[in-house]
């Protein structure tokens, strides 16, 4: 038999800190922009993507499910 039953890796909710099995955690990618706030050519802006995990109750409370649908729609439009 393949796989290890009942011993899934635990992830911690970004909002409340609850330990959640990986299969039940809601994955959400946040995008952050960092800028030097300089006017003109010297301004440098970088974008970073960070994956965070939420428990089901926090994801429902923060309406992450609707945002994930919007993200998927945007990805489909690009390609």
Which labels suit this protein?
two-stranded antiparallel ribbon, elongated, 27% helix, 4 strands, 79 residues, alpha+beta, single chain
- Tally of individual domains: 1
Instruction: Going across the biggest sheet, name each strand in turn.
Output: 1-2
Secondary structure class reads alpha+beta
State the helix count: 2
Shape: elongated
- Average pLDDT confidence is 85
Largest sheet: 2 strands, antiparallel
Order of helices and strands: EEEEHH
In total, the number of strands is 4
Through-space gap between termini: 39 Å
Rg from C-alpha positions?
Answer: 17 Å
Short description:
The chain is an alpha+beta fold and 79 residues long.
Description:
- The chain has one domain.
- Helices cover 27% and strands 33% of the residues.
- The protein is an alpha+beta fold and 79 residues long.
- The longest helix has 15 residues.
- It starts with 9 loop residues before the first strand and ends with a helix.
- It contains two helices and four strands, in the order ββββαα.
């Amino acid at each position: 038999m393949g796989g290890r039953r009942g011993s899934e890796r635990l992830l911690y909710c970004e909002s409340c800190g609850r330990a959640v099995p990986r299969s039940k955690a809601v994955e959400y990618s946040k995008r952050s922009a960092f800028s030097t706030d300089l006017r003109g050519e010297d301004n440098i802006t970088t974008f970073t993507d960070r994956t965070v995990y939420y428990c089901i109750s926090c994801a429902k409370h923060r309406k992450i499910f609707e945002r994930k649908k919007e993200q998927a729609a945007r990805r489909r439009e690009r390609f």
